[in-house]
């Protein structure tokens, strides 16, 4: 889940950088590509978040 969050943040940062530059056809295509990748990551994140158990403890069992 963390990996997906990090990937999404990086792509959103790239998209913002593209938007800050002057617009060209290539930049529009790059933004469209980034938006598609972000959408797919969000879809994966939403899918995997359904399987998270809020009661799950990450503490190691002490024997």
Q: Could you characterize what this model shows?
A:
With 63 residues, the chain is mainly alpha-helical. The protein has two helices and no strands. Residues 1-28 form a coiled coil.
The overall pLDDT average reads 82
Poorly predicted regions are none
Protein structure class: mainly alpha
Distance between the termini: 29 Å
H/E element order: HH
**With helices defined by DSSP (H or I, 4 residues minimum), what is the helix count?**
2
The quaternary organization reads as single chain
Helical content band: 55-70%
Number of strands: 0
- Rg over CA atoms, rounded to whole Å, is 17 Å
- The best one-word shape is elongated
Major sheet characteristics: none
Strand content: under 5%
Structure summarized in a few sentences:
The chain is mainly alpha-helical.
Features:
63 residues, mainly alpha
